[in-house]
Fold this sequence. Notes:
By secondary structure, the chain is of the alpha/beta class. Helix content is 39%, strand content 20%. Strand 10 and strand 11 form a beta hairpin. The relative contact order is 0.12.
Amino acid sequence: MRVLVVEDEQLLADAVATGLRREAMAVDVVYDGAAALERVGVNDYDVVVLDRDLPLVHGDDVCRKIIELGMATRVLMLTASGDVSDRVEGLELGADDYLPKPFAFSELTARVRALGRRTTVALPPVLERAGIKLDPNRREVFREGREVQLAPKEFAVLEVLMRSEGTVVSAEQLLEKAWDENTDPFTNVVRVTVMTLRRKLGEPPVIVTVPGSGYRI
């Protein structure tokens, strides 16, 4: 899952990003609304965690722009205000969910994952395919009842492949969904991660390489 965190409190933004990365998400971070508009114009995000009170460009305007662009991106709006009318106003702007500060990180993570499931055709919380069961919330993977221990990026790649439901996912798409914008686009990290993932999942192989196209399960 690819997430953009937009928050002008840099310590909070960086802490949220670090926590989400530990949950096997690819996370980019910006600290103002203008930078947020630049990022959403370039990258495809599943979820934007958006502070409402931003410098340069207000969070409301960022939310409006995302809606105007007709993007599948879901918006989780954050605010220091706990006033109900403020929350209603944010949702009426087009935000998909609203979370007042201070918040529990576990709740933020659960809301981000719930929104991420809504960016495509609705899928169950626990994914199952080819004898593999993947639970994003618990960060657990089983193959034929055997638990498989995966590193965060391996988990992220497997989740993207399983969510594609048998369609081919290119290396570029995997790079976009499982790594952040600081990753070298010419790196072989996708190929290496898929190789390691295949080994950990065991025999017979379930990840198929489609020459010239990408990978599928």
